[in-house]
Amino acid sequence: QAQEFARSLGVVWAGSSEELPAAELDAAIIFAPVGDLVPAALRAVRKGGRVVCGGIHMSDIPSMPYRLLWEERELVSVANLTRRDAEEFFPIAKRAQVRTHTKVYPLAQANQALDDLRMGRLSGAAVLVP
Description:
By secondary structure, the chain is an alpha/beta fold. The protein folds into two domains: 2-99, no CATH class; 101-130, no CATH class. It has four helices and five strands, in the order αβαββαβαβ. It has helices spanning 2-9, 37-44, 83-95, 110-118; strands spanning 25-30, 45-53, 74-77, 102-106, 125-129. The strands form two sheets. The chain has a three-stranded parallel sheet with strand order 1-2-3, covered by helices on one side. The protein has a two-stranded parallel sheet with strand order 4-5. The longest helix has 13 residues, at 83-95. The model has no long low-confidence stretch (mean pLDDT 84).
């Protein structure tokens, strides 16, 4: 499904969350658990475009002007994905040169990891190890 989705868009863009693409996007997918990225993604999509929040956790989305949703822009979240979805996505991410950032926490510090995610003190993903 991920490859079909990417092919249907025709052009795939990946870049810093602080920059806008050269042209408006049909859709944007946010995997980072950072609510501040939602308004930025909405600015990058065209009229009728869709922003998908693909993580299982995200910090609060800040207040934003209604005009970012105006013109039928759509904001949705995805609560799950299949193993096959991930297998199809990772080759696309590699070609787009997506870089990931992780912070390792001992299992005993799981609550600290969750708190860091909630409070936006973590850039990337938390990884729990035994």
